[in-house]
Each structure stands twice: as structure tokens, then as C-alpha cells.
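2024-03-11 09:14:02 INFO receiving multi-entity request
2024-03-11 09:14:02 INFO entity count = four
2024-03-11 09:14:03 INFO echoing inputs for audit
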Amino acid sequence: MDIGEVAKLSGVPASTLRYYEEKCLIRSVGRRGLRRLFNAGVLERLALIALGRSAGFSLDEIAGMLGTQDELRIDRHQLNEKADELDGTIRRLTAMRDGLRHAADCSAPSHLECPRFRRLMGLAAAGALGDGSDSRKARARRRRSTPPE
Amino acid sequence: MDIGEVAKLSGVPASTLRYYEEKCLIRSVGRRGLRRLFNAGVLERLALIALGRSAGFSLDEIAGMLGTQDELRIDRHQLNEKADELDGTIRRLTAMRDGLRHAADCSAPSHLECPRFRRLMGLAAAGALGDGSDSRKARARRRRSTPPE
DNA sequence: GTACAACTTCAAGTTAACTTTAAGTCAAGA
DNA sequence: TCTTGACTTAAAGTTAACTTGAAGTTGTAC
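2024-03-11 09:21:47 INFO inference complete, emitting structure
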């Protein structure tokens, strides 16, 4: 398969495939002229990479898990750590969501006079709630995939 | 108050305060020589900004909510939208966390042979799980705040 | 044989939210 | 008066994960 076919089958842009190869996340099995040749195994590897990304692993971490070969050495401890991290994130986001819902139909004349809102403000100022980078990044990603013509 | 005092009281670095002023998120009330002077109200404004960031609003969105004056025009609809967004994120993260926990003590000889793991792989490859940018960014932030000497 | 779409490389650009650096200003204490 | 430390500006650097652009090559359909 050449790069266009891999891109089509996996949904991953060719530029990304080249980038992944450069970072040793995937391998091409050879060249036809200048053109890279991939075998079908790359699709499974791309699925693994997508899974790792979804779980919040960086490309570098994923590169560590997927050896250079096709073997896969995933550390259970690493998985549990990541799950713990997600637990924390989920808790913070849940608190924030509840706060937003409350603020949306709170009857106080101004949000600044709602005690619950003020409490949330204090928590945020103290850094207890994180900086909410998740949704912002997700939005950025959506923007990129729907360019303005 | 000069910028150092605001930084100390709020925990927000002076460089960030200047940056926020440039973006019209906060205002200084004047100068003493070259030096900016702030009044105490800026602390409440910074708490609001922190809250907005925690909720996942961008600085530009926050600038829209905090008028140039000290009034605060928060749109309840906007809050509900953000809460909906968070609901989605929470659902995705929860699915991922459960998948990770399962993978961590799944008895299949290789993860590639665990049906549940493979299902998760498929979902991730199809883009149903997002790209997990939240935890990566959080890690980056932690790294920055604990520099290597 | 030639046009062309699909590939190639390498370098630079993108994003948000800051931080860092360099060079300079200035008030106050010794 | 001199030094020191906290401030100032403007511009460039940082991060990850890509994308884009320019300039060149090539397999294949006509």
C-alpha cells in the first residue's frame, strides 16, 4: 500500500503518517522509487496510536509502549496511573459542570452575589480546578478540521 | 498596589498580569513613573478569569463576558452550552478510564487478543473518543511550574 | 511521449497562553 | 551618590502535534 491508501483507510492524513514515521511510531516497509510502501499491519498500529492518544498518552509515551518491532509492551501500572489521572480530571470536570448548571439558573441578581458562584471562584483562583485546557483544545481541533473555506 | 503585590496576592505571575492587561482582561488604574498601579478590584477579576479558564473558556471568550467595565454579563445560555460540552467530555473520559482499568487486569495473553481492548481500539481509530488532549496539557503545565532547577 | 496526480523533502508556519530575554528606567535605602 | 531590586518594553522563544508551502520527482493513463 502506498501512503495515500493508508491515509484513506485509516483516516489519518498523509502528512501525519510521514510525521509519525519520522517519530518512529510507524514504519514503512520499503520504497517504490521515492514512494513509501506500507503493509497492512500499519493500520492496527495506527489504531493503537489513536487509542493511546484518546487515553491521554503523548506520542512519546506511545512510542515507548509500541516497541520498534510489532510487539506491544504495555505496562499495567502505567495504565492504572493514567486511569487515576482520568479519575481526577473527571472529578474536576464534574464539579465544574455542576457549578455551571447552577450558575445558569441561579436566581441571585448578579452571579457575584451567589455564594455558590463565589465559592467556585475561590476554588478556581486557588488552582483547585485546573485550567480547563481540555475543551479549549478540543475546540481548536474542531476548528482545524472545518477550515473557513 | 503595584504589580508585584498583585502577583503575590493572586498567585498570578507579573508577566501574566501584563499579558492579561494587553489582552484587556484586566486594567491598571494608572502609573507611578513607569510602574502600573492596580486597585483591589483586580483580584476579584482575576478570580473570575481563573474560574472561566477552569470551566474551559478561552481568554477571548472570557474577555467577552467581562466587559471593559467592572460589570459582568454572563450569558446563561453560554453557561449551559459549556456544561453540555463538559458532559460529553466526562462521558468520553469515563469510557476511557473504564477501558484502561479493564486492560490493566485483563487476563488475555496480549492486549491485542482482548475483545474489549480491540473494541476500544476501533472506537479510538474512528475518532469517537477524542484525542485526550486534556491530560497532556495538564502535564505540560505541571512541568512548567516545576522547572528542572 | 507527455501530462498530471500523487508522491517526495525540508523548512517554516500554526495554535493558545504564556515565559523569557535583553536592554533600559527608576525609587528608595545606605 | 551609589547601588540594588523591582519594575518597564518589545520581541522572540516555548510546547505538542501537526499542517502548509515550495520546489522537485515519478508512476501511469492517455
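2024-03-11 09:21:48 INFO post-check: Chain A touches chain B through 62 residues (CB under 8 Å).
2024-03-11 09:21:48 INFO post-check: Residues 76-104 of chain A form the longest helix (29 residues).
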